[in-house]
Amino acid sequence: MTSTAYNRIVAAVDGSSTSDLALREALRVAGGGATILALYVVDNGVMLFDAGYYDPTQIERAFADSGKRALEAAGKVLADAGATFETKLVTEPAVAGDIAGSINEAAREWGGDLLVIGTHGRRGVRRIVLGSVAEAVIRQATMPVLLVRGQAAEG
To answer: Could you tell me which residue, 98 or 40, shows the higher pLDDT?
Structure first.
């Protein structure tokens, strides 16, 4: 049996190339001995404001469908690698409008002992203005977090 430092690794995925890198790093860290949870949290932040009457169910469905596609792709990568894994789609985040808080809560509830998340390579003013889910995750984390750097964005 392969001994790993971590037994339950959570990989936050969003369908981006950066989250693909994070998923592959989670596989590398798992080394065949840990279980990986591919986790997608639906961003419900756009549903928090009132712009007159509208029915948010179509938007919610589109976001959930996007999450399902991201998890299917992650599941294929994990299955092809022979990993022990689970996938989880969080459609009702623990913290409304707070993806990072919801990622941390889902990871904690699953019993994760490492959280792997990609950064999106923002630099300078764009990073300060736009913020980062990964940065918010590490500020709130109750377990070790492994950041996987994506390609640096121009500007």
So the answer is: 40
